[in-house]
Design a protein that fits this description.
8 strands; disordered N terminus; alpha/beta; two-stranded antiparallel ribbon; about 200 residues
């Protein structure tokens, strides 16, 4: 029996028929993806571990998403206290219109979930701060609501390295996929040799 024939035959595990073919892609799908930028705000950012890394990679993700026509959503936590989104990030988002919230989770922002559904987003790409609070709680809520969640490790952080790591561990254990900025961009691109590829390539050089 050939390998291809064998791998397509359902097998039984403990009396249950299990197909060995993967039914759902494990990769990001451009048509289903949306970038969520969580609370990259002026009064919070200075205290963040490796803040420059977070801003640079968040901007790269935003620029890449714009090139690839992936919808972008931004939130701000208690703007009166934490200030507006930093100019580098706000200026990179076409038609910037952040959703303000008091809940730590972006899912608590009025209109956030309806906005995702309107754009047919079922795969959320998360970046921003803080990894162990607002990003983590957003991730957990999205997972609970049936979204696939991809957390961009080099575009999130917290005030301390420990909480940054704990946040990533918590989200990974809950079922989120931990990725990098370049992983996201190239996975959404899928192939080289296109005009989009040439534009995205300038972001990662």
């Amino acid at each position: 029996m050939g390998y291809l024939t064998a791998c397509c035959i359902p097998s039984k595990v403990s009396g249950v028929t299990v197909s060995t073919m993967q039914k759902t892609s494990l990769r990001l799908t451009r048509a289903k993806a949306g970038l969520v930028v969580v609370d990259v705000q002026e009064r919070l950012l200075p205290a963040i571990f490796e803040q420059q890394r977070v801003v640079q990679n968040t901007v790269r993700l935003i620029q890449g998403a714009a090139i690839l026509q992936v919808p972008i959503f931004a939130t701000e936590q208690y703007r009166k206290g934490l200030g507006p989104t930093v100019p580098e990030v706000a200026g990179a988002i076409p038609g910037f219109a952040p959703m303000e919230k008091l809940a730590f989770s972006a899912c608590g922002a009025a209109g956030f979930i309806p906005a995702l559904k309107k754009r047919k987003v079922s795969e959320a790409i998360l970046c921003g701060i803080e990894a162990h609070v607002c990003v983590s709680q957003t991730c957990l809520d999205l997972l609970e609501k049936g979204f696939r969640v991809f957390v961009v490790a080099d575009a999130v952080s917290s005030r301390t390295p420990e909480n940054y790591r704990f946040g990533l561990d918590r989200m990974r254990a809950a079922g989120a996929v931990i990725v990098s900025t370049e992983m996201v961009l190239f996975e959404l691109l899928e192939q080289a040799g296109t005009d989009e590829f040439k534009q995205v390539l300038t972001l990662v050089k």
